[in-house]
Amino acid sequence: MLKLEKRASPSTFWTWAAPVVAVALTMVVGGLMFAALGKNPFVAIRTIFWDPLFGEFAFYFRGQLLVKAAPVILIAVGLSLGFRAGIWNIGAEGQYIMGALFGGGVGLAFYPAEHWFIFPLCILAAALGGWLWGMIPAILKVRFRTNEILVSLLLVYVAQAFLASMSLGLLKNPEGQGFPGSRSLAQYPATANPELIAGTGIHWGVIAAAVVVLLTWVLLDRHILGFQIKLAGQAPRAARFAGVSPSRLVLLCMGVSGALAGLAGFFEVAGPAGQIKIGFNVGYGFSAIIVAFLGRLSPLGILLAGLLMALTYVGGENASTNLGLPSAAIQAFQGMLLFFLLAVDMFTNYRLRLVRRRVA
Amino acid sequence: MLGGIDPVVLIAALMVASVPILLAAIGELVVEKAGVLNLGVEGMMIMGAICGFATAVSTGSVWLGFVGGALGGAGLSLIFAFLTQIMLANQTATGLALTLFGLGFSSLIGQGYGGMKPPPIGPVPFGPLADLPVLGKILFSHDPMVYVSIAVVAATAWFLKKTRKGLILKAVGENHDAAHALGYKVVRIRVLAILFGGALAGLGGSYVSLVRVPQWTDGITAGAGWIALAIVVFGSWKPWRVLLGAWLFGGITVLQLNMQAAGSWLPVQYLSMSPYLITILVLVVMSADRSRAAMNAPAALGKNFQASR
Predict the structure, then answer these.
(1) What is the ipTM for the molecules in this complex?
(2) How many whole angstroms separate alpha carbon B144 and alpha carbon B137?
(3) Which of B17, B8, B63, B24 has its CA nearest to residue B201?
(4) Structurally, how many domains does chain A consist of?
């Protein structure tokens, strides 16, 4: 009979093998799902995972890869800090929207002026917007012990309604013939977040993501704060005896993840999305949760996981135009990825042992 | 502000509006009483919504639709049960995965169902009772599911309070090691509770797509699952208080919809925020009172169980 036995310490091998196995399993089961939709599973998997990288039009897709990866990585790195410490910010999508509204709003307030400081100011405002939205669940948690999972998630719906009201009201393009949505931020030189090196997809958000990954790696590996975050997650009682203030960690983790999500939101509306409008947010805040886990909550892992997630987005679009695969299939595929990761992850903490059933 | 809104109509409407969150919340209450925190209510609801809708449209029977919805929700919850009870995965992460997967998968199944109409469901024929002034409209004018949902609350309250099995379920939720030592099958009991929760969430979801709206659109449940989770906290894990909570939120939803229709001075977007904001407010009030918040929460909530012997 098979029996689970807890490992004394998590297996290093499985920590890194689990995501790989999970991706492989997802491809198999995802392939079955594509087959059920009447598509050739091998062609579908190739269209999603191979063609964007090495296919005929790879020169176009490779640039798209960084465009999609940057916001997801930026958000996921922030979330991973909290997840490590057992603080569950799952409302990054709302913080992303608020960052876009704050950053974009500040930029549009200057329209049509041209100053060098407008763009940096927008970035600061975006971080502030995301930070504020993240602070609501944080303060409620610290002050009233309110569950931060529910509050941060419910605030996503509030942010979406706020986005709708801004797109139809205050931030609506006065020259937009009555269509909802703001002026184009991408075509207003003072706020535009353009492709910096043609063909690579690199914009300021990509650079920010790279910097944040590096900084977080330093923080977690070399700084006392990183140690405290890890300690609070692994041994909350020990952390308290060691003088780590849980409240401070909640405020810090929620604030940082909110600010990073806000940044991602502004880079998106000022660049790839182009303007503030209803539905500009396509769920990066939720995909980032998957990315954070898939990357084992470590900055470098998240970098890889974010690129993989971007590949499913880009490849999914490719499959949708070329094979008519519904875009919802990709969303289901991403959810499946997390399922398999969680399942395979058991081997990180437990080992399977074959034991003979003894007579009592 | 309330001008033009008839309180009798409002009460009758809020009873209908609260059915989905009531069913989902009662299901989640049982799951949490067994010591399991399933954050995938939203995902199970929306799977129930599309499975119920698809079943009802293809069979022409709204009742088979409800059955299909319950099966859809229970099917998704089976994944949660497998991951958390057998593979010992983190319950918070698994619940989120359930919601993310459910939102994507439901929209995948729902391709081609947009714009269709489900078979209608009529009110229960109470005969002359329905014509009573005031009471007729509030008590005797609803479709059968409204009464079913209230019966589910009563049955759950009775099960948890008066039956031996209910006591065992609560014991598992309070201290799974002690329950295991007494010889109760912790994992089996929890899996059954999770399936029950999934079925009720799916049933609630199918009520949204078959009766409340009634049609299929992506993301149709719009956060109802998360509100249901909050209502369990609001009701401090007691079935009748959960009913009260569901009515409160049903009332707010109906009221803000009526104000939207009546053209209030507040823009529509701010009105549609209100159910979520008030949910947050209620959560804060409930958790601020330390003695009350801790009183009824199952002690082993969210902790995984592994038999060491």
Answers:
(1) 0.88
(2) 14
(3) B24
(4) 1
A268 burial level (CB within 10 Å; 0-12, 13-18, 19+): buried
| pTM over cut 0.95 | no
Show the CA angle centred on residue A94, arms to residues A251 and A338, nearest 5°. Answer: 90
Classify burial at B169, counting beta carbons within 10 Å of its beta carbon; exposed 0-12, middle 13-18, buried 19 or more: buried
Domain of residue A245, residue span: 38-325
Bridge partners for A354 per DSSP: A2
Structure tokens at B179: 């329950």
Q: Provide CATH code, domain B7-119+144-296.
A: 1.10.3470
Contact A154 B83 (CB under 8 A): no
A167 touches chain B (CB under 8 A): no
Strands A350-354 and A2-6: antiparallel
Residue A9 lies in a domain: no
Q: Rounded to an integer, what distance in angstroms lies between the CA atom of residue B147 and that of residue B139?
A: 9
Nearest one of B158, B197, B196, B160 to B42, comparing CA atoms: B197
Best A72, A97, A150 residue to mutate vs chain B (most B CBs within 10 Å)? A150
pLDDT along chain A (360 residues), means of 10: 78 86 91 88 89 83 88 95 90 95 91 87 95 95 90 94 90 81 83 81 88 92 86 84 86 94 94 87 90 91 92 88 85 89 86 70
Beta bridge partners of residue B115, listed in sequence order: none
A6 in B contact zone (CB under 8 Å): yes
- Using a 10 angstrom Cβ sphere, with 0-12 exposed, 13-18 middle and 19 or more buried, the burial of residue A9 is exposed
Helical residues (DSSP H) of B34-184, grouped into ranges: 41-59, 62-81, 91-109, 135-139, 144-162, 164-174, 176-181
- Residue A99 structure tokens: 């960052």
3-class SS of residue A351 = strand
Using alpha carbons, list the distances in angstroms from residue B89 to A346, B80, B95, B134, B301: 7, 9, 10, 51, 14
Q: Would A24 be classed as within a structural domain? A: no
Q: Is residue A2 part of a domain?
A: no
Burial class (CB in 10 A: 0-12, 13-18, 19+), A225: middle
Q: For residue A169, what is the nearest residue in chain B, using CA coordinates?
A: B267
Residue A350 to residue B88, Cβ atoms within 8 A: yes
User: If DSSP codes are grouped into helix, strand and coil, which group holds residue A270?
Assistant: helix
A357 touches chain B (CB under 8 A): no
DSSP for B89-116, please give it: --HHHHHHHHHHHHHHHHHHHTTT-TT-
Q: Where are the domains of chain B?
A: 7-119+144-296
3-state per-residue secondary structure call for A182-231: CCCCCCCCCCCCCCCCCCCCCCHHHHHHHHHHHHHHHHHHHCHHHHHHHH
B239 prior amide bond cis, ω within 30? no
The answer to whether position A350 is within a domain reads no
The tens digit of pLDDT for each residue in B8-58 reads 888 888 989 999 999 999 999 999 999 999 999 999 999 999 999 999 999
Cα separations (Å) of B3 from B79, B258, B259, B263, B271?
49, 10, 9, 11, 16
Q: B228, B21 in Cβ contact below 8 A?
A: yes
Cα separation, B275 vs A217, whole angstroms: 40
| Measured distance CA(A46)–CA(A210) in Å, rounded | 28
